[in-house]
Amino acid sequence: MHWPLSLSPLEHGAFVFVGLLIYVMVTRIGQQHRHPSAAIAWVMSIALLPYLGTPLFLIFGTRKLARARRRPPPRAPLAAGAEGPDWALTLLAALGVPSPARNRSIAFQADGEASLRELVALIDGARERVDLSTFVLADDAVGAAVSSALVRAAGRGLQVRVLLDAIGGLRTSRRLARELRAGDVAVRWFMPVLRNPVRGRTNLRNHRKLVAADGECVWSGGRNLAAEYFVDAPGRPAWRDLSFVVRGPLAAQAHEIFDHDWAAAWGKSPRAARTVAPPSGVDGGPPAQLVPSGPDYADDTVHALLLASAYHARARILAVTPYFVPDDALLAAWCIACRRGVRLTLVVPKRSNHWMADWARERALRALAAAGAQVMLYPAMLHAKAVVVDAQLALCGSANLDGRSLFVNFELMTAFYGAEETAWIAGWIDAQAQQSGAYEARAPSWGRDVLEGIVRSVGFQL
Question: Which residues contact 413 (CB under 8 A, 6 or more apart)?
Fold first, then answer.
């Protein structure tokens, strides 16, 4: 057996060539399109550190499970008169996103304790089935409250399923998982790490957050099921976040998405998300549309919608996100929007819970500020993910404005088209901006500029 240091130059060159050939085969033949900076980073890693870069690529290199269709699907009719900007509806229909529908009611929850009460009440009120998907189910008071509600539902004879991401689920104690299973709750881990390395899917994580009951009610948003997202602790206020409950046909679509993710949990699912049939809506109810994105869609649906919205915006764009590391295309689109007169307000936490994200965001924040955007720094941890475009469209859900959420993770956003819902989210973002301090762009030192670039490149991969 030869160790790398004892290989001849010819043998070393052959290893590098094989590594690069693997990269070309996976990315080109498998249509694994990547951002240029990500592609360069992988090629450089394989060329300069082949004995490390090639195995890492085999483990983390998969980005898409679905391939683009030869022809876009025909646009489905809108359910029960659902309304929204035509450019958004046409784009999402072409990308195979579930059709919008009118619902009986939509209620937003900015208060964590109220959101937890609503979630537990939803589970306790279910009559037939409950599906829960989350990135984190912590072994704390919140995790215990939700788990107890799930066990009670199963005890009433309901079908109860819980889908936990294998990485985010590291905060879920095995004791808690055993208690759920002992209470007749079906628990499945999404893409277990040890099961998927040779399949290249270890890096594909399920960040979607939803609880659907009976095809009638769905709870979703940005909150993981852990105490810091809902309740204050001594000296540590709960993170600012958003969730919402929709009562109506959107819940049936949420079950469909969960079913697909449940099948995908071990990496043996269909290679593309199924097209969900248009639901029967409620006449006159508020319109909404689920916008899932991730490896199960051939296109990066949320990213495409954000790009299109930047070029269609006429008056304003409001955005709030905990981590802001956009790709060059989205950053350029927002800067162009600012220069043509669109008022863009971005609210991010002054200091998030991930220092790498805080370092990686600085270049983008400086570019936005130079273009005329209002960049605000919230004094505490802000975990909500929401975007408002003019008075036509509001997005809220699980996707951060960074490379991992926009290009790698399984994510779920919801588009709201009603005037009342759009105004509510816009007012909430405005309120957070008023409690924030203005960002002051400062030219970085040479060393910091280099470090920011390195962190940004690494962060895109991770």
Answer: 290, 291, 292, 293, 302, 385, 395, 396, 397, 398, 399
Assess whether 329 and 186 both reside in one domain: no
Distance separating alpha carbons of residues 60 and 198, to the nearest angstrom? 9
How many domains would you assign to the chain? 3
pTM: 0.85
Q: What is the pLDDT of residue 462?
A: 44
Give the separation between CA 186 and CA 251, rounded to whole angstroms.
20
- In this prediction, residue 273 carries a pLDDT of 53
User: What's the pLDDT at 47?
Assistant: 74
Residue 273 burial by Cβ neighbours in a 10 Å radius (0-12, 13-18, 19+)? buried
| SS3 assignment, position 380 | coil
Is 110 found in the same domain as 209?
Answer: yes
Q: Is 317 found in the same domain as 236?
A: no
The neighbour count for residue 163, using CB atoms within 10 Å, is: 23
Which pair of tokens denotes residue 209?
């957050």
CA distances to 112, 116, 169 from 143, rounded to whole Å, are 14, 10, 12
Strands (E), 419-458: 437-438
pLDDT, residue 70, reads: 46
Q: What are the b/e assignments for 81-105, b being 16+ CB within 10 Å? A: ebebbeebbebbbbbbbbbbbbbbe
Contact between 345 and 318 (Cβ < 8 Å): yes
Q: Angle between the 36-48 and 9-24 helix axes, to the nearest 10 degrees?
A: 160
- Region label for 184, one of left (φ > 0), alpha (ψ between -120 and 50) or beta (otherwise): left
pLDDT of residue 81: 47
Q: Which CATH number does the domain housing residue 216 bear?
A: 3.30.870.10
CA angle 167, 169, 171 (to 5 degrees): 110
CA distance 430 to 347: 9
Please state, as a whole number, how many other Cβ atoms lie within 10 Å of the Cβ of residue 397.
Answer: 29
Measured in whole angstroms, the distance separating CA 392 from the mean position of its chain's CA atoms is 22
Q: For the chain, list residues with pLDDT below 70.
A: 1-7, 12, 15, 19, 22-42, 53-54, 56-62, 64-82, 194-201, 267-283, 456-462
Q: Residues 414, 394: contact at Cβ < 8 Å? A: no
DSSP H or E stretch at residue 119: helix 112-125
Helices (H), 161-249: 174-182
